[in-house]
Specification:
single chain; 428 residues; alpha+beta; Uridine Diphospho-n-acetylenolpyruvylglucosamine Reductase, domain 2; Cytochrome p450; 2 domains; 6-stranded mixed β-sheet; 3-stranded antiparallel β-sheet; 16 helices; disordered N terminus; oxidoreductase activity, acting on paired donors, with incorporation or reduction of molecular oxygen
């Protein structure tokens, strides 16, 4: 990670944007109903709005669908290497967003031919995952998790099901032994890194994530297997150990928190919306509709930091200065009224959302398909095992996690008729 003190000096550059007109991305009301904030920012500023990040660090929030696509389609104007940022002199060493902004030797920050090389290794390694086998694995994991609470007649589906399932699936894909202390610790440190509470240390948590993945990579170098990590180690591109560690951190982080929230948000939709609740066990079509609609209306990755302007340019009527930071507002862009003039956001069959980003730096193929297999398999298993599951509280009592980056519930309490155990063994 780049030390802000050693980053390229930027004192002579114009700072982005004017603090007097910027809006802080904070506040409980916003975090519960971010759509209200996005609407207000659009009214005042248009498709690109001045914002303040943690510690009142200025940046731009790209709200418009066309503008997000433009930014993500033009790496020559809006690049991923964060060392370009003109705000580094003002960033403290313990800044909460530093794990995701400080430059790292990760595929996330590479550009041009180097990005193509690194992304190609990831795509090849993920492409080796048998999706039918993954579905079987996810069903086995789901049954094991459900067995823990099936006989109780009640559960918090977020903590007991949606949160652990994608982590168990991801670590098995990557070759980490499931069910151990390392897996549980990895899941908790990823949560802290992505969605830190007041007393959490996201920088330290991110360091522990990296250490656990480094241990995995060294173990797989000594004893390779049929897993993503081993395929990355054996790839002809010849990635260094540090490169593989960093890229695996990105893969597992993307597989865990966003997929967990995708599962939880889709279940919330199906349990609160009559269109789904009237036919809760209606099969694959209803689940697919819920998963797609959530990506439009409650996408797990609400905002993503970021892109950095390569030179002075115009975007959405704003002058973006060289080195300015742009936050990609996927949630706002997906609900942009300019692309939904009739208000029918997320119409059936439309998958042109930006929830997996866009352009060269979008989620590498086939990561979105693997995430969908995990999410769909999880919900199918739950509804088959607990067909009469209903919310244990009123829909208005459900609360969203206080994060400007991830969209997910704090809990999803449900009740159901107690069911017998599937008795299928361990989660691995």
């Amino acid at each position: 990670m780049t030390d802000p003190k050693t980053a390229e000096p930027a004192a002579a550059r114009p700072q982005c944007p004017a603090r007097s007109e910027a809006t802080r991305l904070s506040g409980l009301e916003y975090r519960q109903s971010p759509a209200e904030l996005y609407r207000g920012l659009r009214r005042r500023h248009g498709p690109v709005a001045p914002i303040l990040l943690d510690g009142d660090v200025p940046a731009w929030l790209v709200l418009g669908y066309r503008e997000v696509r433009h930014v993500t389609s033009h790496d020559e104007l809006f690049a991923r290497d964060s060392r370009r940022w003109n705000a580094w002199p003002a960033i403290p060493a313990d800044w909460p967003l530093l794990p995701f902004v400080g430059h790292q030797p990760s595929v996330l920050f590479t550009e041009g031919a180097e990005h193509q090389r690194r992304a190609g290794v990831l795509s090849d390694a993920l492409g080796g995952v048998d999706q039918f086998e993954l579905r079987t694995t996810c069903r086995r994991i789901a049954d094991t998790l459900i067995d823990v609470f099936a006989g109780r007649g009640a559960a918090d589906l977020k903590a007991a099901f949606a949160h652990p399932l994608p982590m168990l699936a991801a670590v098995q894909m990557c070759g980490m032994p499931p069910g151990g202390a390392d897996t549980a610790g990895l899941a908790e440190d990823l949560r802290i890194s992505l969605d830190a509470a007041e007393d959490d240390d996201p920088v330290a948590a991110f360091g522990r994530v990296r250490e656990r993945i480094q241990t995995l990579v060294r173990a797989k170098r000594a004893a390779p297997g049929a897993d993503v990590t081993s395929r990355m180690l054996g790839h002809p591109a010849g990635l260094a150990e540090e490169e593989i560690v960093q890229d695996l951190v990105s893969v597992i982080a993307a597989a865990q928190q966003p997929t967990a929230n995708w599962i939880g948000n889709a279940l919330r939709l199906m349990l609160t919306d009559d269109r789904f609740a009237l036919d809760l066990t209606g099969g694959r079509l209803s689940i697919d509709q819920a998963l797609t609609e959530v990506l439009w209306l409650d996408t797990p990755t609400q905002n993503f930091i970021g892109r950095w302007a390569v030179r002075d340019t115009q975007l959405g009527g704003r002058l973006i200065r060289e080195g300015d930071c742009l936050v990609l507002g996927f949630a706002a862009a997906n609900t942009d009224p300019r692309i939904w003039p009739q208000g029918h956001v997320g119409a059936a069959g439309n998958s042109a959302h930006l929830s997996f980003s866009h352009g060269e730096h979008r989620c590498p193929y086939p990561a979105p398909q693997l995430a969908e297999v995990i999410a769909r398999s999880a919900i199918e298993a739950l509804l088959e095992r607990l067909p009469d599951v209903v919310l244990a509280v009123g829909p208005g009592e459900l609360r969203w996690r206080p994060s400007v980056w991830m969209r997910g519930l704090t809990a999803l309490p449900v009740r159901f008729t107690p069911a017998p155990s599937a008795r299928i063994g361990s989660p691995g």
